[in-house]
Amino acid sequence: MNEISRISQTAPLGDRTVRRVGFGAMQLAGPWVFGPPKDPDAARAVLRRAIELGVNHIDTSQAYGPDVVNELVAEVLHPYPDDLVIATKVGGVRDAEGGWVRASRPEQLRRTVEQDLRTLRVERIDLVNMRFGVGGGGPDPVPLAEQLGALTELRDEGKLDLIGLSTVSAEVVEAALALTPVAEVQNAYGIANRTDEAVVDLCREHGIAYVPYYPLGSAFTGGPKALAADPAIASVAARHGASASQIALAWLLAHYDRMLLIPGTGSVAHLEENLAVDALRLDAEDLATLEKVAHVSAPGF
Ligand SMILES: NC(=O)c1ccc[n+]([C@@H]2O[C@H](COP(=O)([O-])OP(=O)(O)OC[C@H]3O[C@@H](n4cnc5c(N)ncnc54)[C@H](OP(=O)(O)O)[C@@H]3O)[C@@H](O)[C@H]2O)c1
C-alpha cells in the first residue's frame, strides 16, 4: 500500500466522526443565496441523495435564503439520521434586499442560533461556526471573547454542541484556542487559492478539522470551469479519467487528513461526482504536477 492509498474516508470533527466528503447546502437557495431555489424538487432530491450516498456532514446557515435552506433540510431529512452532523454559522444575517449584514453582538448571535434551532427543528445544534467579520465595514467591533462567550453560554445551556470558527486569521484561531476548544476552522481555500496555508498548518498542529469553503473555486469566480481550464489540473484529470472538480477535491483530501469537504451543488449528478472522489487516489507524480496550478484569490464574500 503506498502513502497516498492510506487516505482515510472518515475523520474526526470534534468528538464526532464524519465522512470526509460532506455537503455544503448554500447552493440550494435562490440566486445569490437569496430566496427559494428555482427548482425546489431538485433541491429536495439533492438532499435525499446525499443521505442515501452516506453523507453525514451538512453545512448550512440561517443566512442561506434566509431560513430557506434550513427549512428544506428539515423538511426533507427530519427526523435526522443519528450520525448526521449539521453545522451552521452565525455572525451575519440578510437584509430585505439580500445584503449580508454583520450580526455579531452576543444577543444577535443568540437570536441566530435560536432561529437555527427552530428552522432545523432540533433542540441542540451539532456545530456552530462563528464567522468573524461579515458585511465589510472594517474589523468586527465586537471583541472575539465576547462573541465566543455568547457561544459558550449557549453551549452550557445545551443549545449547541461544538464551536467552530470561520473566515479567521491564524491570530484569531490562536486567541480563540485560549478561550475554548475549536472543532473546525472554515475558511476559503482550495487547490487554486492557497492563501490560507498558514491556518491549515495551524489546524494540523492542533489536530483541528479544516473545512474549506469554495473547495471548487466557488460559483462566484468561475468555479469548476476555471479549474478545468488549468493545464495542470486538466492533465491529472485526463490521467485518471476524472473531472477537474474531482481532482480539486482529491487534492484537498490528500493535503491534510482532517480536511473535511463541503462542496456545494444543486445537482444530483454533480453531488454523485463529488462523492465519488473518496475512491480517487492521487500519487506523488500527480501531486507534483498539481503544485503547478495557477493561484487566484477567493472573492471577499
Ligand atoms: N463560512 C462561510 O463564510 C462560507 C462562505 C461560502 C460558502 N460556505 C459553505 O461552503 C460550501 C461550498 O462553497 P460554494 O458552494 O460556494 O462553492 P464550491 O463548492 O467551491 O462551488 C460550487 C459551484 O460549483 C458547482 N459544482 C459543484 N460540483 C460540481 C461538479 N461536480 N461539476 C461541475 N460543477 C460543480 C456548483 O454548481 P451546480 O449547482 O451546478 O453543481 C456551484 O456553482 C457552501 O455550500 C457553504 O455551505 C461557507
Write structural notes for this entry.
The chain is built from eleven helices and eleven strands. The protein has 301 residues and is α/β, with parallel strands linked by helices. It has one domain: NADP-dependent oxidoreductase domain (TIM Barrel), CATH 3.20.20.100. Strand 3, helix 1 and strand 4 form a beta-alpha-beta unit. The longest helix has 15 residues, at 106-120. The structure holds NADP nicotinamide-adenine-dinucleotide phosphate. NADP nicotinamide-adenine-dinucleotide phosphate (NAP) binds at residues 24-27, 59, 89, 131, 166-167, 186, 213-219, 223-224, 243, 245, 262-267, 270, 273-274.
Set out the fold topology:
Blueprint: E1 10-13, E2 16-19, E3 23-24, H1 40-52, E4 57-59, H2 68-77, E5 85-90, E6 92-94, E7 100-102, H3 106-120, E8 125-131, H4 144-156, E9 160-166, H5 170-177, E10 184-186, H6 197-206, E11 209-210, H7 223-228, H8 231-240, H9 244-255, H10 268-275, H11 284-290
Parallel strand pairs: 3-4, 4-5, 5-8, 8-9, 9-10, 10-11
Antiparallel strand pairs: 1-2, 6-7
Helix pairs in contact: 1-2, 3-4, 8-9
The structure holds NADP nicotinamide-adenine-dinucleotide phosphate (NAP).
